[in-house]
Amino acid sequence: MLRNILLAAALVATPALATAAEDPSRIRVTGHGKVSTDPDVASLSFAIRGEGTSTDDAARALSRKRTAIAEGLAGLLGPKAVLRTGDLSMVEVRDRACFGTDGDDDRPKLSSGACAVRGYIAVMEGSLRISPVKDAGTALSLASRLGAVNARLSGFSLGSPSAARQRAQAAAIADARARATAIAAASGARLGRLLSVEDPEARSGGQDIAVTATRGANAYAPAPVAIDITPEPVDTSATLIVTYAIES
Q: Within a 13 Å sphere around the CA of 198, how many CA atoms are in the beta-carbon half?
């Protein structure tokens, strides 16, 4: 789903001049490449909240909502759509009178009188990676119906960033060759074979793996409200230092 390839025109380092004194038969340039690709993974994040007069009641309410959201999203997106959970907290709830007139007193309180604990709120963070992206808006709508709080599409990404990286590097090579050819011609020489390529941005690290889900039967009625989305493309850039031979 490559939309376009933009070849950067800027030349960061002055080619050959820095190395000509050492070896006039070579030219060294910096090429830049950027590709724009439609994202194929959407990240959905939200909170799940359960309330009760006891910690057990709040935990049960939270668990029921988590199950409903997980099953609903699996019914919409397919069984491979896995709900991931993050931070979990259990908060005591007291009467407003316990916090004074401004309601912003966070000092420790004895659990008696106006400050007696009236109930508990359990809150859990939830997230889901969705592919194809076109289902992300509808998934947010359904999750909110089933009890998700503050649901939002928190980002878009590529399921295979390495493929986009390779295209950006190819664009950087093309940019470098065009620059080197122009400089060699201006100096009355002819560009020779490619000698080396360096990637100053190369680094090790893991790669996220997208969960690809297929649409399954939706057991919830009425059907979730569909929300069409059109996210911006994901830009992938590459910078390469390329050395060519110069032929007289």
A: 8
Express each pLDDT in 134-164 by its tens digit: 999 999 999 999 999 999 998 999 988 999 9
Domain 2-39+159-247 in CATH 3.40.50.1820? The answer is: no
State pLDDT tens for residues 162-193: 999 999 999 999 999 999 999 888 888 889 88
Amino acid at 168: A
Q: Angle between the 136-145 and 55-77 helix axes, to the nearest 10 degrees?
A: 150
Domain boundaries, the chain: 2-39+159-247, 42-155
CA-to-CA distance for 173 and 197, rounded, in angstroms? 9
User: pTM surpassing 0.70?
Assistant: no
| Three-class secondary structure of residue 20 per DSSP | helix
